[in-house]
Amino acid sequence: MTATQDRKEAAQAGAGTRTINLIQAVTEALHEELQRDERVVLFGQDVGARGGVFMATAGLQATFGKERVFDTPLSEASIVGAAVGMAVRGLRPVAEIQFADYMGPGFDQIISQAAKIRYRSGGQFTAPLVIRTPSGGGVKGGHHHSQSPESYYAHTPGLKVVMPSTPYDAKGLLKAAIRGDDPVIFFEPKRLYRAAKGEVPDHDYTVRLGEAAIRREGTDLSLIGYGGVMPDLERAADALAAEGVGVEVIDLRSLVPWDRETVVQSVQKTGRAVLVSEAPRTANFMGEVAYVIQNEAFDSLLAPVTQVAGFDTPYPYVQDKIYLPGPNRITAACVQALNH
Fold first, then answer.
1. Which residue numbers are catalytic?
2. pLDDT digit string (tens) for 180-222?
3. All structural domains of the chain
4. pTM over 0.90
5. What is the reported pLDDT for 61?
6. Which of 76, 156, 222, 329 has CB atoms 3.0–4.6 Å from 105's, for a disulfide?
7. Where is the Transketolase-like pyrimidine-binding domain (predicted)?
8. Would you say residue 1 has pLDDT above 50?
9. Using H for helix, E for strand and C for coil, what is the string for the chain?
10. Contact, 315 vs 146, CB < 8 A?
11. CA distances (Å), origin 36, targets 31, 60, 179
12. Does the structure show a pLDDT above 70 at 5?
């Protein structure tokens, strides 16, 4: 599904649209789901009266009360454990971990409990919960506030993993995640919270997990990414377009499940693939995408699949522009693939 198709569907539904940023889209999704379903509860460190460190939950406690939107102690293991217990007992918890870097203390609860409860109970119990967390760099937060740990969770069967890059997707994917019956890790690229702006329909809608968005169509090269790197992919595609190169830009939107069909069809058309993420390169999720491409589109490849990623180092405090795969590194990788 393309972003253009998303907007067409909104127009066909007979609703207007308005322009908001990504964090406003998150807030709206939470507000609407709290209003729609009394089983939804929202909690985490400072999410109540303060509205969260990035103000994503501002005003929700005042509207829905302290029983449904509340603060927790600074204990990620307790936050996740409480979410699992609530979900098993029939609620729809949305837990916030203040930064993705802080998910470590709750890791066992996520991978050993939330991810496995459906299987270990023979389907008697499910864990319909969402863990929201700001992720990635670009805000000079250093190595404790800028990591991209999505590959840990994409590797765990039983979890769904999402990372939007536009307000439309952030709202639609979050609403779909809350309504689903599986645990979802919902990474929010913090550098896009206020930088990403776009049209969002006035009416209720969801975006199905596992469907990529084709942001731009092209025939010479497939440029594939997700989350915070997407504006840089667009800038690289613009630079290449000025030289007459047609780049197809694909936003995965969700990693588990991910849209293999759209990716493979694109690479079969273009013959070249450049995969971009800001996580460290070793064991990067994009290695899985590369495997599927070479396995299902090998005969179409005109050049090796190329990956542009963060470096295998702790995230530096002040060197965001060097660490992150910006438009210059992405463009250079594309030129290399085109000249192969």
1. 145
2. 999 999 999 999 999 999 999 999 999 999 999 999 999 999 9
3. 17-201 (3.40.50.970), 213-338 (3.40.50.920)
4. yes
5. 97
6. 76
7. 20-195
8. no
9. CEHHHHHHHHHHCCCCEEEEEHHHHHHHHHHHHHHHCCCEEEEECCCCCCCCCCCCCCCHHHHHCCCCEEECCCCHHHHHHHHHHHHHCCCEEEEECCCHHHHHHHHHHHHHHHCCHHHHCCCCCCCCCEEEEEECCCCCCHHHCCCCCHHHHHCCCCCEEECCCCHHHHHHHHHHHHHCCCCEEEEEEHHHCCCCEEEEECCCCCCCCCCCEEEECCCCEEEEECHHHHHHHHHHHHHHHCCCCCEEEEECCEEECCCHHHHHHHHHHHCCEEEEEEEECCCCCHHHHHHHHHHHCHHHCCCCCEEEEECCCCCCCCCHHHHCCCHHHHHHHHHHHHCC
10. yes
11. 9, 14, 10
12. no
The per-residue pLDDT for range 264-313, each reduced to its tens digit, is: 999 999 999 999 999 999 999 999 999 999 999 999 999 999 999 999 98
Using alpha carbons, list the distances in angstroms from residue 279 to 177, 312, 324, 325.
Answer: 23, 9, 9, 9
Question: From residue 47, how far is each of 30, 75, 163, 230, 244 by CA, in Å?
Answer: 12, 14, 20, 28, 48
Token readout for 174 is 């979050």
Q: What is the Cα 19 distance to its own chain's centre?
A: 20
Q: Could you report the per-residue pLDDT of 143-174, keeping only the tens digit for each?
A: 888 899 999 999 999 999 999 999 999 999 99
Residue 169 is encoded by which pair of tokens? 């997707």
Q: How many CA atoms lie within 13 A of 174 on its CB side?
A: 33
Closest CA to 117 of 159, 67, 145, 75: 159
Q: Tokens 């995969």 — which residue?
A: 275
- Tokens at 280, concatenated: 């460290």
Sign, CA dihedral 54-60-65-69, equals negative
